[in-house]
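Input record, target 12 of the design panel.
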């Protein structure tokens, strides 16, 4: 083996050490008009994770803004898809295929109208439950077997209220205060899930 072969081998080893093993995806819609809306609870969670762990999600790749962070000794690709909610799966599949990451190592964070803004719920896997972002991921990956964190955004004020109008509405000041607690809890849950402690995360935060 030549000296160049040795250097190439070392470069490959360095690259493999830095290769993402886990994808963390926060769902939402791009654009100023959607900032701080209920449907962007996934984006808000990623923003809080960036604050707590001192990294940025700003590089344009995989139809998303992405960043990398080490959690529990694992390199994680953190994503905010820019495809709009209904096509979120396009971004997720591109990243999965590029890094050859299995579906069980894709953690998705998104809004849930069945939970109040102070609440969150962790699931190991499950159906899309009518959520179009999750529907897109399930359809394009062909699997429901990925962990997810559901962020409470509050139920519609009354049954006849238009669902699209509701999820695209902004949180009230009181709701934002309650949401901040859930965002911090979600960040802690992310660390546990990536570290292989999803049962512990579910026991701690599913109430």
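The sequence produced for target 12 reads:
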């Amino acid at each position: 083996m030549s000296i160049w072969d040795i250097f190439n081998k070392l470069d490959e080893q360095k690259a493999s050490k830095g290769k993402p093993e886990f994808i963390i995806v926060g769902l939402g819609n791009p654009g100023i008009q959607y900032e701080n809306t209920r449907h962007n609870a996934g984006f808000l969670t990623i923003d809080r994770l960036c604050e707590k762990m001192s990294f940025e999600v700003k590089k344009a790749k995989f139809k998303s803004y992405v960043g990398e962070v080490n959690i529990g000794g694992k390199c994680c690709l953190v994503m905010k898809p820019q495809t709009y909610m209904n096509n979120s799966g396009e971004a997720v599949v591109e990243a999965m295929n590029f890094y050859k990451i299995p579906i069980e190592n894709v953690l998705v964070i998104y809004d849930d109208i069945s939970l109040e803004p102070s609440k969150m719920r962790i699931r190991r896997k499950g159906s899309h439950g009518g959520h179009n972002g999750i529907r897109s991921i399930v359809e394009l990956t062909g699997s429901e077997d990925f962990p997810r964190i559901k962020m409470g955004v509050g139920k519609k004020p009354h049954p006849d209220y238009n669902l699209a109008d509701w999820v695209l509405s902004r949180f009230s000041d009181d709701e934002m205060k309650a949401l901040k607690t859930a965002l911090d809890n979600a960040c802690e849950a992310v660390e546990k899930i990536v570290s292989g402690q999803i049962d512990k995360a579910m026991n701690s935060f599913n109430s």
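The domain at 19-205 is CATH 3.40.50.1470 (Rossmann fold).
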